[in-house]
Structure to design on (187 residues):
């Protein structure tokens, strides 16, 4: 047998030795890239968390709350998060099985209006008054099964936390619903 020719067994040893060296180099490369891999994983987790929160509508601009009492449903659509200085609206919707034959009074807390500067109230109220920290909008009996109030305005820049309060809806002098509102201001 020639000595310059590796035996099959020697060839296997060199090949295994070469593979070990190759695997060792791969491991060293992986260790050298460890901070980069960790950074990529952190970025992937953060992006995935933002996508999940967006799908859950945590960053959504609007939300809706409804209360049903005595056959009447009161729904308030308002922004969950708003940007200071940007226009927005708050919509209060009343729905009853029968036509509303009594006067409707909607009370909006002054603490909410301190941050949300109302520019337009539609429809216009028959009378307006401020008392007990509330703007009270009184409407003649609408004589329809549905009534919608739309408040349009801008978010003030002075308050950095947002606005909160409870909207009260009454018909015929009896409070039908009290709905809490909370809007966060995004700077």
């Amino acid at each position: 047998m020639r000595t310059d020719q590796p035996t099959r067994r020697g060839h296997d040893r060199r090949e295994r030795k070469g593979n070990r060296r190759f695997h060792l180099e791969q491991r060293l490369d992986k260790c050298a890239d460890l901070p980069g891999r960790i950074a990529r994983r952190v970025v992937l987790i953060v992006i995935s968390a933002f996508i999940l929160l967006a799908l859950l509508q945590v960053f959504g601009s609007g939300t809706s709350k409804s209360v049903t009492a005595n056959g009447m449903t009161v729904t308030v659509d308002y922004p969950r998060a708003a940007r200071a200085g940007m226009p927005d609206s708050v919509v209060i919707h009343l729905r009853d099985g029968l036509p509303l034959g009594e006067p409707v009074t909607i009370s909006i807390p002054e603490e909410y209006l301190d941050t949300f500067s109302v520019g337009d109230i539609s429809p216009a109220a028959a009378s307006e008054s401020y008392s007990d920290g509330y703007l009270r909008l009184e409407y003649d009996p609408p004589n329809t099964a549905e009534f919608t109030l739309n408040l349009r305005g801008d978010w003030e820049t002075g308050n950095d936390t947002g606005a909160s309060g409870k909207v009260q809806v009454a018909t015929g002098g009896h409070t039908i619903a009290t709905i809490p509102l909370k809007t966060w201001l995004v700077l």
